[in-house]
Write a structure and sequence with these properties.
single chain; about 400 residues; mainly alpha; 3 domains; 18 helices
Amino acid sequence: MKRLIVWALSLVALGMNAQEVKPERIPWIVERAESSEWYENQIKAWEKVVANEPANENAWYNLSRATRYATMDTPEGYEKRKLLNERMRKAIPNTYTYHFCAYDTMNDSVSQAHIERAYQLMPANRTFGEEYGTFIAYFWQKGRDKELKEMGRKYYEEQQIPTALLRYNYNELQCLPPNALYIGLGDAILLPKIALQQGLGVHQDKVVICASFLYLPEYYQYVCRELGIEPETFSMADYQTADTWENYLPDRIEYIMKKSGRPTYFSPSSLSEDSGLSRLKKKLYNEGLVLRYSDIPYDNYVRVRENVERNIRLDYLIEPQFVAEKEWQSANALTYNYFVLLAPLIGKYREWHDVERSEWLANLLTKALEQAKMSDAMKNNCQKYLNINIGE
């Protein structure tokens, strides 16, 4: 009987070990978002690794990322990340990993010295992937062109950005006339453009502007300097209430547009209700994959047609994925814009008595939808919208 009990307990122990969570690489949230429970389990798993290997920088890095994503929406998150950074300082002092994580998890003015030190300590024998995005955002905010261009070039050369994401961003740039302004929000539609401009050397005449950074005086002055215009003189006292604060971002953008005299375009993925750009929506016109700001109504479908037939590269939407590569979960939704913004052209072609082009675009978008990596709900919405424009 005693032997049987020991044997049974051994089986229980084996079962518990089998269920033990293994430490995994923590993907950047733009690549793949996980549940809070998953991040909490990974914190426990990586805590065991650093306990046994206190000098393991990779373990600390993943522990830091898991802690950041598990606590970023919690009241106690700041203190937890602060305590973890102090532990890292003692375990792996003056390393790239410590300084990068100390900035990345806090991202405030106090931690800026850490990102500067991390930049100095960037090792030559590793890849950085989405970490380049953190450096790009920092140097962009500061208006430090030399470092911004260096990070954008290296990000492109490392070949860590999904090809489909580069193609989408390239197509948005293709829709812009020379010397245009492009205004957007979010990593998926800003970082690849910086990488394309600095790494591939294309569309360098276009000025890409991060809308949310315009809240920062240093960045606002940098944009004005790049465009050769004097920054607007205004008082923050004019933006002290919730109603007036809603006008802050549109006021800065309208001033930049007016003074620079450049054609201005917006990302269609950057116009949510909380974007601060709602006031400008009524004057935006679809020109393909981008929305142009105009005080005067015009026949925008002439430009949509020109972009579809001459500028946008659509073949990749129906080609097989020849090489397996990582994807950004947050970027898959960008494919949605092809259907929402280009489908109306199917009916326009019929109005112009160009049946061949109408059928060509309808077939292309139908095939593209079959291959698109979107949620079922998004696919269903696209299919319904396509059917309406096809006339089914």
